[in-house]
Design brief:
The complex is a heterodimer of chains A (about 350) and B (about 280). Chain A is mostly helical and about 350 residues long. Chain A is built from 15 helices and two strands. A two-stranded antiparallel ribbon of chain A has the order 1-2. In chain A, a hairpin with a 2-residue loop joins strand 1 and strand 2. In chain A, about 50% of the residues are buried. The radius of gyration of chain B is 19 Å and the shape is globular. Chain B is mainly α. The interface between A and B is large, with 49 and 44 residues.
Chain lengths: ~350, ~280
């Protein structure tokens, strides 16, 4: 009831330690290659393509936070887009009142605090009680919470702009003169933040806390019996995942539209699709799914306008049924075959 | 004054019966199989399009209401055989897979019928006088139909052999199998019944809404809440959940704007779920 059931291998921390120097150097190559590719992309792509890629990166960050929640807390949120929306509205509403550099940093801070704090508040109610609300019930609650937030955003139009969304707020500005306009400046910021958060999380998850989380996820009863406070851990992971989703939403502001659709079921469904198709349990899978599907959609939807979503649905079913580890799982199978 | 109060009471009853009707299929599948069917909203929507299609061909709304549960039940059969059955030991993956099924149904309907909106004419457009209030006949009919369907479901579950087999399987799958109950067949049966009920609900709701491929999603969160607030797996819980959510909506809608009223009722549902995760009526 309270476990995500994708089959998995040894935790990354343990797998890493068992490799030699050569193995570690080999393992570093894809990381360096991906980072180089990320920063080389704006040199070869058009402004339009860079803007799209910047959006996909924020979606990837969001999907990664959902994967963190699923893999380390055994929870799947069916309204995760709402936390992205909270972050986006936090930054946009702050910029509306406090333009300039101060407003930008305050807005980003608020995005993380509001989204993370809201997750912590909800989590404290769901996980710390005598009867934990987990598993499928957590899914239903998050679905309802997203619906509630969307209704509030639509209904409170004097504050939120209602169904039109927010526009006309000041351009975010990182330093005097360094405005996040066009697509290049936001892209570079988004890429840097994604890299920082990804490696920060990977590092944090190798700690004792990270391993305890994994233990709690894999066998909740046993972990609890050796003194792991599962409820408190779920709360921490939910708050971190919420804060990351909020930051992703704030990053989305310079490259997308701040509208109530971010709180909608459709968007949250997409987040799940990105996570599952990319591959669960390895953080990077969310990026693989969001960027892969985003690029495929841009390339194909001209030819398959009506068929595109149908294919995504079929793919989701097939991957869950026969290949629960997604695209990353397929990649891992290939690299293991060629590794020296 | 009494007239307004009476109108609101009937409104609440009408909304409660509609939500119960919509949540029925969800409750059957969740209660009997432990499966949360995220494709429910889209099965419900498919029931509406069954009416659109049958009414378009034959001109009869009531034939459409007959055809919808059959057609959607058939879809349910395919979904159980093809998807749900294989994920029995992976409850969260079942959610993800049925999410995919929902997308496929929605996009399939868009492909077949186009993304535009359809209207289904109300087959019983008149009003009936209840004391000082005139109320639409069709909405009163829906209250009656909901009561009949609920009663039929209760009789089926508690007074017939297939219902007994299902309840036995729900309690202990292996022991039930040892007594000669085929758990796979019973599961299939329950899923098809749940899907057919979703189709029936869609067909009956079609004259009251603007039919479009996304129409089901509007009701999904509230339908879930009806199921879990009352308590999963009991007919009484379902009725209680429907009255709380539907009645609460009508009551709050009297004082607040409809959007905020909707949100307030969902907040109430989340709070109830936090303090009584098993539901109120168990």
């Amino acid at each position: 009831m309270s476990s995500v059931d994708a089959p998995r291998e040894a935790p990354p921390g343990i797998a890493e330690a068992s490799r030699g120097t050569l193995g570690r150097a080999w393992a570093a190559i894809p990381h360096i290659a991906v980072i180089l590719l990320l920063f080389a992309y704006p040199l070869v792509a058009s402004d339009y393509q860079i803007g799209l890629m910047a959006q996909f990166l924020t979606f990837g960050l969001l999907a990664m936070s959902l994967d963190l929640l699923g893999d380390r807390a055994g929870l799947v949120s069916f309204g995760h887009g709402a936390w992205f929306g909270l972050g986006a509205y936090a930054l946009a509403l702050t910029l509306e009142r406090v333009p300039g550099v101060g407003g930008t940093y305050l807005g980003f801070l608020l995005a993380a605090v509001v989204a993370g704090g809201f997750a912590a508040l909800l989590g404290s109610q769901l996980f710390l009680g005598r009867q934990r609300v987990g598993g499928v019930y957590f899914g239903i609650v998050t679905l309802a919470v997203a619906a509630i937030l969307q209704l509030v955003v639509m209904g409170w139009s004097s504050f939120t702009g209602g169904s039109n969304g927010l526009y006309g707020f000041a351009t975010p500005e990182l330093a005097p003169g360094l405005e996040l306009t066009g697509s290049r400046a936001p892209y570079v910021l988004i890429a840097i933040v994604c890299i920082l958060i990804y490696y920060g999380l990977t590092w944090a998850l190798r700690s004792a806390l990270g391993l305890a989380l994994l233990a709690a996820r894999q066998n909740p009863k046993r972990a609890e019996s050796v003194g792991v406070p599962i409820g408190r851990f779920q709360l921490i992971v939910f708050a971190i995942a919420g804060a990351i989703a909020g930051i992703a939403g704030a990053l989305y502001v310079p490259v997308g539209f701040v509208s109530p659709d971010l709180f909608g079921l459709t968007f949250s469904t997409y987040v799940i699709v990105w996570m599952v198709l990319g591959g669960r349990g390895a953080l990077i899978g969310g990026f693989v799914g969001a960027i892969g599907l985003g690029q495929l959609e841009t390339a194909l939807s001209g030819t398959f306008v009506t068929l595109w979503l149908l294919m995504v649905g079929v793919l989701l079913i097939v991957v869950v049924l026969v290949w629960p580890r997604g695209a990353l799982g397929a990649l891992a199978t290939v690299t293991r075959a060629v590794r020296p | 004054m009494t007239a307004t109060v009476l109108t609101q009471v009937v409104n609440g009853l009408s909304l409660a019966s509609i939500l119960i009707l919509i949540a029925l299929g969800l409750a059957v599948i969740f209660g009997l199989l432990g499966v949360i069917n995220l494709a429910h909203a889209d099965l419900f929507m498919a029931g509406m399009y069954a009416v659109v299609l049958v009414q378009g061909v034959t001109g009869s709304f009531w034939l459409g209401v007959l055809a919808a549960p059959l057609a959607v039940g058939a879809v349910g059969l395919v979904v159980e055989r093809g998807v749900v059955r294989w994920l029995r030991d992976r409850p969260l993956d079942t959610l993800l897979a049925t999410l995919g099924v929902g997308i496929v149904i929605r996009e399939g309907v868009k492909l077949l019928f186009g993304a535009g909106y359809r209207q289904v004419a109300n087959p019983l457009p008149g009003n009936i006088a209840i004391g000082p209030v005139a109320y639409p006949v069709y909405r009163l009919l829906l209250i009656a139909v909901t009561i009949v369907v609920l009663a039929a479901l209760a009789v089926w579950l508690y007074r017939t052999a297939p219902g007994l087999r299902l309840r036995a399987m729900l309690q202990d799958r292996e022991t039930a199998a040892a007594f000669g109950i085929d758990p796979d067949r019973a599961s299939l049966f329950a899923f098809v019944i749940g899907a057919a009920l979703a189709g029936l609900a869609g067909a009956l709701m079609s004259p009251l809404v603007t039919v479009g491929p996304d129409v089901g999603i509007i009701y999904l969160a509230r339908a879930f809440m009806v199921v879990v607030v009352g308590g999963v797996g009991s007919v009484l819980g379902l009725v209680g959940g429907g009255v709380i959510i539907g009645g609460g909506d009508a009551l709050a809608g009297y004082f607040l704007n409809p959007t905020i009223a909707n949100a307030a009722v969902l907040v109430l549902a989340v709070i109830i779920l936090r303090f009584r995760p098993g539901g109120l009526f168990r």
